[in-house]
Amino acid sequence: MNTTLQAISNRRSIRSFAAAPLKQEEIDALIVAALASPTAMNRQLWEFRFITSQSLIEAMNEAALSHFRSIGDQAALDRIAARHASIFYGAPLLVVIAIPADAGRYAAIDAGIAVENLAIAAQSLGLGSCIIGMASASFTGARGKAILEQMDWPEGYEFAISIAIGHPAMSKEAHERHPEKVRQLR
Hints:
Elements: H1 3-10, H2 24-35, E1 47-51, H3 54-70, H4 74-83, E2 93-100, H5 105-124, E3 128-132, H6 141-150, E4 157-166
Antiparallel strand pairs: 1-2, 2-4, 3-4
Helix pairs in contact: 1-5, 2-5, 3-6
């Protein structure tokens, strides 16, 4: 099996990371992978925020937890508590992808492609990752506005997706695969 297919096959959603920071060379390689992502009509509408500030990541976590408490989403709070104290699982790097609010559906697809590029690139570097959609809750309320300012968030953009990346502090088996969901038409 070639190395790309091996990285895809071996990738898991890691929900516990070692506290060790990433090397700048690793972050630079991930930036290259993000920017190499294909986009519809090569519009490259996404914006990336590579966050290594643990205080900012913690502020985002607290804002998200506060949001879930304020709307009474006990199921989300229970799911988070069962996995880790943080929705970002102690990752030393969080990448947030933003897209223009009025860009249409292809920008969201482009963000999905970019986050997958990051997940595979992380795996190929010996790192772990977890794609996190619930980070959108970090940007609500008064706390959310302050966080967006800290992130130098572009005007008119919205959260698309995020990914936590770091050195895995856990391992897990591959999820069940369902080949019956594939039809080859000839």
